[in-house]
């Protein structure tokens, strides 16, 4: 249930001060507040709110609130899906090790060469070969330059351990590379030759985007006491190196002491990490040579077990950068009146929930487009966004997000092809062989494959009754799922909710195989923080989700026309190719669309400068922050 009766709650109640915020630091902040208040009194109490002055200074500690229950769990940047989350990928590892190319500029999800470690790629060999030149300014924290040998080690890991890498999808990098060149004679240049000519847009946003140079001179070893060698130049050696690095990354207790994690090329070093809570403290890397040298002395990521705990910390002044829970949205005026900035953080992705097309009972039903159209017509996205999420959500109509806007969003993709209509849903069902029983369960009365029949594989008497797995942890998200169940019931579609943890849902998501029992029919884990984002493949083409046999296609969805349109995005550099597949997905409904959410409604102290605009790829830039 959502909390009601919101009043002033003190941080000295049931929710303790986060462990990473020492009592000494809290006392210092209280003393600073008293000093500031005294100054206002002396000045004649010119204002009752914090100063909005842009005066800044070097030093100070900036605090950032992590999402409830989500903390960093893996430090090695070659991360696998089962152990990763958004914090690992965007708000932990990139502080320490920068990717080859950076995506996100001025609140847009586009390439940012000023933040990248290399210049624009150059194409030759009829477009099959891409050559990349590294920026010579970047060095490791021990003074060694970042060279093509560091890129080569990453690529060797990707070639030999691709099954252990989060971003791998069969047929994409490294499967589509026929040869690689990392010449010692030109240590800042490397080349990749592909097996055919691909879209340059796709290569830049979905292929080169995967690469993260790693310190070969420090990490190419197979044990803590072993010497550094060139083990990654063989498949067996690469496997031994990966096994060692993965084991080291799995030991969270040594994150701040392990020499491996001290060799970085990013603007920060990890100085404190609490495995029991996930609290993390970063300090500037004094040897950093890239863009944006930190001016604050410390950057702290503070964990919280609930939105209530975070909200209490926010109101008591422990956070420079926090978030407003949806159930506390009416408290925005409280923070605004005290000088805080309220800003919605939109991510570049989409929100849907999955249908299991391979389930022996539900699968044949879900394969009927009119069924998906009826169910989509009963999802009142506008009402859910306004009434349940209080404006912190917005409709999803296709794989191209409406917010934030981008060049990929055409006018047709901004229109809802299936607006909410109970009458339309009922009409679709009755005209295709179903006896509609509002608030009951519909049944197939005209089996067969002719026009007006229920469709292939649906027997007489089949019921529109399904089970939906829904992620726990968010009261508004549970309310959203219940609202959709109620709407479906109005047309006789009977859906039973089974609440499970997000991890438990992930564990069962897979297409059914011959002879095995299906564990799910519908799955919905799209609460804030759990929705798909286009990263580290940044091109908004939904191939990994909707392509036949694709890595993330856990639904078993297969459509030859969809596959053709997806393939076109790999070889056609036009934005129209992406819009074509997005429009087809909007119409065909390979999944059901539901409102997408802001990653969070950020509440930012007037003392913190440089936090806006917020990055749609979830990156943070504390190296550009300052405190006044």
What would your notes on this structure say?
Helix content is 26%, strand content 15%. The protein is an alpha+beta fold and 628 residues long. The protein folds into three domains: 23-69 and 279-346 and 604-627, Periplasmic binding protein-like II (D-Maltodextrin-Binding Protein, domain 2), CATH 3.40.190; 81-260, Dipeptide-binding Protein, Domain 1 (Dipeptide-binding Protein, domain 1), CATH 3.90.76; 352-597, Dipeptide-binding Protein, domain 3 (Roll). The strands form eight sheets. The chain has a five-stranded mixed β-sheet. A four-stranded mixed β-sheet has the order 1-10-9-8, with no helix packed on it. Strands 4-5-7-6 form a four-stranded antiparallel β-sheet, with no helix packed on it. Helix 14 (475-489) links the parallel strand 17 (465-471) and strand 18. The longest helix is centred in the first third of the chain and has 20 residues, at 23-42. The radius of gyration is 26 Å and the shape is globular. The model is unreliable at 1-54 (pLDDT under 50).
């Amino acid at each position: 249930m959502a909390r009601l009766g919101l009043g002033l709650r003190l941080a000295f109640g049931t929710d303790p001060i986060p462990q990473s915020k020492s009592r000494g630091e809290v006392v210092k902040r209280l003393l600073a507040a008293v000093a500031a208040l005294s100054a206002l009194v002396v000045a004649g109490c010119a204002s009752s709110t914090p100063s909005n002055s842009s005066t800044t200074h070097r030093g100070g500690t900036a605090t950032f609130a992590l999402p409830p229950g989500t903390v960093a769990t893996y430090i090695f940047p070659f991360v696998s899906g089962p152990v990763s989350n958004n914090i690992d990928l965007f708000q932990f590892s990139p502080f320490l090790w920068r990717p080859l190319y950076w995506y996100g500029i001025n609140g847009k999800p586009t390439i940012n060469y000023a933040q990248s470690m290399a210049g624009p790629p150059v194409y030759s060999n009829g477009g099959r070969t891409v050559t990349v030149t590294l920026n010579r300014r970047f060095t490791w924290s021990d003074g060694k330059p970042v060279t093509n040998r560091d890129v080569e080690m990453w690529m060797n890991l990707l070639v030999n351990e691709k099954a252990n890498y989060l971003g791998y999808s069969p047929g994409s990098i490294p499967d589509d590379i026929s040869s690689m060149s990392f010449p010692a004679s030109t240590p800042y240049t490397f080349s990749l030759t592909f097996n055919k000519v691909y879209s340059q847009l796709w290569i830049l946003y979905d292929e080169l985007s995967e690469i993260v140079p790693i310190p070969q001179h420090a990490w190419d070893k197979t044990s803590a006491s072993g010497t550094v060698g060139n083990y990654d130049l063989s498949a067996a050696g690469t496997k031994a190196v990966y096994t060692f690095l993965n084991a080291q990354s799995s030991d969270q207790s040594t994150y701040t002491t392990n020499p491996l994690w001290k060799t970085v090329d990013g603007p920060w070093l990890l100085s404190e990490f609490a495995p029991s809570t996930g609290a993390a403290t970063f300090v500037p890397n004094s040897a950093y040579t890239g863009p944006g040298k930190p001016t604050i002395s410390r950057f702290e990521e503070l964990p919280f077990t609930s939105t209530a705990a975070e909200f209490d910390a926010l109101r008591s002044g422990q956070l420079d950068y926090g978030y407003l829970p949806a159930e506390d949205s009416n408290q925005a005026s409280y923070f605004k009146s005290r000088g805080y900035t309220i800003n919605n953080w939109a991510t570049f992705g989409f929100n849907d929930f999955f249908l299991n097309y391979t389930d022996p009972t539900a699968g044949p039903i879900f394969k009927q487009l009119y069924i998906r159209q009826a169910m989509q017509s009963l999802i009142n996205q506008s009402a859910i966004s306004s009434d349940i999420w209080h404006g912190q959500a917005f409709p999803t109509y296709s794989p191209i997000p409406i917010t934030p806007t981008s060049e990929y969003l055409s006018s047709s993709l901004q229109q809802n092809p299936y607006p909410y209509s109970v009458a339309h849903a009922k009409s679709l069902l009755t005209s295709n062989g179903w006896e509609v029983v509002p608030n009951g369960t519909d049944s197939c009365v005209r089996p067969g494959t002719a026009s007006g029949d229920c469709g292939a594989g649906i027997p007489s008497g089949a019921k529109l009754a399904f089970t939906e797995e829904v992620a726990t942890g968010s009261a508004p998200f549970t309310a959203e799922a219940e609202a959709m169940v109620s709407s479906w019931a109005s047309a006789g579609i009977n859906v039973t909710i089974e609440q499970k943890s997000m991890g438990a849902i992930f564990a069962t998501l897979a297409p059914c195989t011959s002879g095995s029992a299906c564990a799910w029919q519908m799955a919905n884990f799209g609460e804030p923080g759990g929705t798909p984002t286009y990263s580290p493949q940044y091109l908004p083409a939904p191939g990994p989700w909707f392509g036949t046999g694709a890595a993330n296609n856990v639904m078993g969805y297969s459509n030859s026309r969809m596959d053709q349109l997806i393939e076109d995005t790999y070889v056609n550099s036009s934005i129209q190719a992406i819009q074509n597949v997005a429009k087809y997905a909007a119409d065909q409904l390979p999944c059901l669309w539901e409102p997408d959410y802001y990653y969070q409604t950020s509440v930012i102290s007037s003392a913190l400068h440089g936090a806006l605009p917020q990055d749609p790829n979830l990156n943070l830039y504390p190296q550009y922050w300052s405190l006044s």
